[in-house]
Amino acid sequence: MVPQNVLLNGLPNIPNTSSNAFFDPISKLPTPPTYGPLLDIFFRDLVQFFPFLERGSVETRLQNGTMSAFLINAICAIAVKFALPEGMTPVQASMPFMQQANSLLIELLRLPTTDTVSGLLLLSYCEFGQNSESGLWQFSGMAIRMAFDLGLQNSTDDSLFESPEEARRARLLFWTLFVMDRVLAFGTGRPSSMSEDVEISLPEPPHQPPLPAFIPFAPPNHIPWCFPAAVRIIILVGRISDSLNRRDALRRRNSNDTQDVEVQNNERRQLLENQLKEFYADLPQELNWSVENLKMHAANGQGGLYLFIHVWYNAVLAFVHQHQTPGTVVTKDTFKISLSSAQMISEYLVFADLFTNQSYLASPFISQPLFIAACAFIHDARVNHNVSLGPIKKSAETNTPLSVPDLQNDKGVGLLGTISAQNFLIIYKALRRMTWPWQGIGYIVNLLEQRASVSGLDQVDFSATSDAIQSFISLPDSGIVQKHSKTPPQNPSPPTTTTATQPTATSTIAPVMEYETTVATNITNSNNTDSLDTNSS
């Protein structure tokens, strides 16, 4: 089964990874001139979200021949989105490295290792960048299952690892997966996959990896590390999410216990909300929100994590006070709390854009909090100020600060007449920019455009929202392409003994074919998606 109205089209600018000069044909590693600049990008802007990776360890392994080709290709696949070759989009630039990594994956699944878990997690980010929600879900799921297969949740004995440093990195890998799991559960409404019942301790400041050596203005290591606070706040966010998801599951089943469970859930949610507020209030002074702290953490290579903490905290408050649940009522006072939290998120984005825009551009999973804030602004503008926010005209992307209004969007009917309307446009512009490296955010952008234009969620056409987005999938299986094509295959009869043994001529780029689907997808039918080098034999 495939969605409706899909356009399958080749991506002619993507090089063939089996013979491309980017890769060593024997080791499958990218060549040093290829991975060198990409490691610079990764360890400057992205490693803060993946603290289990350290540049010193990676470079040592590259030099002594022990570096995983799968992992280094996954690192390059995500880093190249922020160091584009001329004339290429992030989708196109990332694809060769993803193909190279995927060509190595099948055999690696037979032998669980922390390298494979790490690469799977990175590839799940890349799949989101290609707008493949299924890829995001499947790769992150494989990473989680392999982590449990390795027993990372119970790895308290350092002697089980090659060194104490390796043990420390393995535990940080587990908590990075945990954050990913909870963020996905919150965003999709699905149950979380990873239990909190683990034996390893939460990350602490002594577990902090070394600072990137090439940040000359980085202050000393006494600055609080943001990752432990990010893990702790997501634990509380996950508990609130699980509480809400459990209630919804019971309501869908029409369970007789729904009313009692809803009362218990509301009590638990209020308790968790109070715990969240207490945790946030008790953050060290250096982790409290301020522009100076933002600049300090950005210089320390962790501006994105610092923003992540504050955005998620305010998003949860905005969400629980914006939506009515059984036993609760949304009043003007509660909505003021929601709107205040949303305004804080808008303020964070403005300053982040001025001082360290990579703090949000490199952080795809703050898109859910931004969506929550934008919905609060839409509601306030429409209900409290009678201001229409749409339809929004899509202007060309510019490098103007988020705080500068886009006059092309001012329809002369008060679009910029309220603070909420201006804040909505700040969020909207940020999400539009984030869509460039992370195509999966396009769904949120299109949904916001519709919500700004209609009077209620019931009027949003979700199929039309999906129709405007393109997914990019490299598909080497021509049989699947032909099976779901409107155009019947040239030889639809089952193969005979004779025809089955005859070579089949296929092109490296699939022909353009229209499908009845809901997502527009570009699929490359490449028979050379880094298979064995047949020319050498």
From TrEMBL:
Q: Which GO BP annotation is one of this protein's?
A: DNA-templated transcription
What is the top-level taxon of the source organism? Answer: Eukaryota
Q: Where is the Xylanolytic transcriptional activator regulatory domain?
A: 136-209
Keyword Transport applies:
no
The family database entries (InterPro entries) matched by this protein are listed as: XnlR_reg_dom
Keyword Nucleus on entry: yes
Q: Which UniProt keywords apply?
A: Nucleus
The biased composition feature labelled Low complexity covers 496-508
Location of the region described as Disordered in the Swiss-Prot/TrEMBL record: 480-509
PANTHER family documented for this protein? ZN(II)2CYS6 TRANSCRIPTION FACTOR (EUROFUNG), ZN(II)2CYS6 TRANSCRIPTION FACTOR (EUROFUNG)-RELATED
What name does this protein carry?
Xylanolytic transcriptional activator regulatory domain-containing protein
